[in-house]
Amino acid sequence: MIDVRRRGRVILLAYLLFCIVYLGAPMLSVSSVKVLEPSAIDQGVPFTPWTIAIYASQFLFLFLTLWLSPTSEDLKNLLAAIAVATAISAAIFIVWPTAINRPDPHNAAFSALYLFDVPTNCFPSLHVALAIIAAAMWPHRRTRPLAWLWAFAILVSTLTTKQHVAVDILAGAVVGVVALIWTGVVERRLVSFRA
N or C: which end of the chain has fewer CB within 10 A? Predict the structure, then answer.
């Protein structure tokens, strides 16, 4: 069982493991990179550089969801859902690495992002999957609608910053939902909603 009193260490360890898997997946790829073409939806969404702040807020969102988890069981379930989404995504990144043509607006925020991002981990959008998991597992029921708004803003920002295309977002949403179902979160939420 995870001790919530040691959540700082647990979160740090989980983040380090995530980085190893996410950044390491391209080194294990078994096929050449496929460049995804933008759809009509992607072409209709304007590039809006300031939304990089919303895109980057996903890291804070996920951290807060982890940090505010009230019980060891909640923290364990959240970490399990993150691990499942990361494992599914990494397997796809290895078998079918994808990239998109990303803009280079030559500003500090995008430069920092590109230092820590992998250009061949586009499909599915793990950014979207983790935002959905964070919203679904937001620990406070009263503010959960705000968490869902935050997740939706992050989802939209993946398009407005041109870090993903629409098919990546759809796939990321599916991965997030599958991770929540796989770890039993959806079932537990439905039971608590009926109670």
Answer: C
